[in-house]
DNA sequence: ATGAAAGCGCTAACAT
DNA sequence: ATGTTAGCGCTTTCAT
């Protein structure tokens, strides 16, 4: 297999029959009839080289299929041209957007993306950070603002740029790009409160080690408190970000007394679960219960009756994160904290509080498993 | 900021007041009172070093917070300990699983994951591949088996391992791990055919440059052909993998004559869209129309009436891909093609073909936007 | 504008 | 079992 030189003009360097070795700068220089330093310059600072040389080099590069050796470059430059990202999981569509945007922007600017997952575990996150440092990253994107301080120490000592994302806090020690989760949650809650709801429940995401989840919970609580309303522990459940867990969460809440007339969910995945569960229990959304989430997943718009949610500009955050990191590496000025806009998207899943007269009992759960054809 | 040595025992190397530089092997060797080679050995092949030395080195490493310099290591070893992955997008939950599994397995085995996106474009894929080669990957995971031949040439010349995933083809030139998309689609179609359906439509994913989408379409066609049934061009629409597009696709299909009684979708995202659209049009699924997909997303199980789908073991594929690549790098024997099991999951969205007498007309699309309370 | 040569931090012969 | 040393492929002073 490896013995056939199917390709033209590619290995003028291997005289004997030995293993073919990818062409290096030396070979390029030789073929172009210039010095190795000129090749380097022609590649990195074309302007500092005569047009003639540049052409010769370009041709040699092309005909040898030369590709720079990143590790050597990194070693010499003491800059890997790589950005790391540690995220809890990839399984959320909005986070996938963020990573995609980050990757594309990095690529555009000549950086590659090394990805690591923390699974919502701060100690795994630290480990992964060490690995990334070893690989040789110049900058690191983190999710949220709650991290092992050892991470910051490590990064600072080695001059690695860092940015926390999906949180916004001008007072934080680390640069960040995002929005204030608490404020966003408060706005969402206010919407419900404006509709007359007084008994509001929450299905939060797991709060431990997750300041975004914690912030949202705090925001809901604050909005209620501002109107003299309580958020009894009874009406807060914490569930992982999965549809089935959202269903479970709502089931729990529906069993509580007093039963909430509105439920705010830690994100849309949970909210979709809650919506499905409500409908499965024969409740009409929003007539019997209002449901809202965060993220504005595609599904939020499509799923009847439409899910009211806070839209979070994930792509934008990813892009901004890449720019922040790379700008800062290039010595350009960067904002310490950048706020992106969240948007309250009103859809059919939230409505006025039910009249007092409405029955609290759950209707026959089976009957709504199939849609009524409304004939 | 950088001037405060908040940390104990960390910079015995910087005598003057200058910039602190991360400790290298030299410093470790010095502190441990051994040679630099011993440090290297203690780190890489602990067994080849006396217990005493090992301990001294370990202590020095710890107290200096030493972290290996990956680029230097890669340069010397001519092995980057990095795996690349090029995927079309991350936005599919199953693909996210695959990437997560790949990443975790790589990490476990001492490799990092460099991620690149091709956006379903074969020429972008080639570009990204070049970038990855430049970064210095030892192995590459690709999605599907349809790629620019230049990719294979490039990789082969440089001795970079490659594996195609989510496809299975023992006859293919490149190693692969996955399943036969055509066979899977055929099985799914047979299920519908067994239920008596004769007019089957398909909402395929974009087929260009995507052999998985193409294979599934071919499988549906083959299953029909095997029973002497046609798949008229009229009943095939191609739509991007988004819920809204799935809705659109179904709308198109419902307008065709004869109208299909069963629709197979390129994946679950499209299928969910189709399901939502069917219900929005007042159709009962599966009484009026059967719908099936691929992937077995969480949502497939949760969304009433439950989506019949082919479950694809994405995590397993990701894990196997990591193992295949790394095993092969380590000189271990690896299978050229590995087949993973897909599983037909029967749920409520597929059922017997409607009786001939059923009306073909579409009911009022508006009325079912809100659920009938079935009171 | 171009070339020669000294490293970047590590590993792996090759000594001892 | 441990130490010495020559590169790995590139960038970058420093000469010219």
In CATH terms, the superfamily of the domain at 181-310 and 343-368 in chain A is Response regulator
Task: Report helical residue fraction of chain A.
Answer: 40-55%
Taking Cα atoms only, what radius of gyration of chain A do you get, to the nearest Å? 28 Å
Largest interface between protein chains, with number of residues from each side: A-B, 79 and 75 residues
Provide the β-strand percentage band of chain A: 5-15%
Return the CATH topology of the domain at 181-310 and 343-368 in chain A. Answer: Rossmann fold
The name of the CATH architecture of the domain at 181-310 and 343-368 in chain A is 3-Layer(aba) Sandwich
Please state the average pLDDT score of chain A: 91
> Which sheet architecture does the biggest sheet of chain A show?
6 strands, parallel
Which residues of chain A sit in consecutive blocks of at least 5 with pLDDT less than 50? 1-17, 357-375
Structure description:
The structure is a homodimer of 375-residue chains. Chain A has 375 residues and is of the alpha/beta class. Helix content of chain A is 41%, strand content 14%. Chain A is built from 13 helices and 12 strands. A 6-stranded parallel beta sheet of chain A has the order 2-1-3-4-5-11, with helices on both faces. In chain A, strand 6 (200-204), helix 9 (211-226) and strand 7 (236-238) form a beta-alpha-beta unit. Chain A binds a DNA duplex (16 and 16 nucleotides) through helix 2 and helix 4.
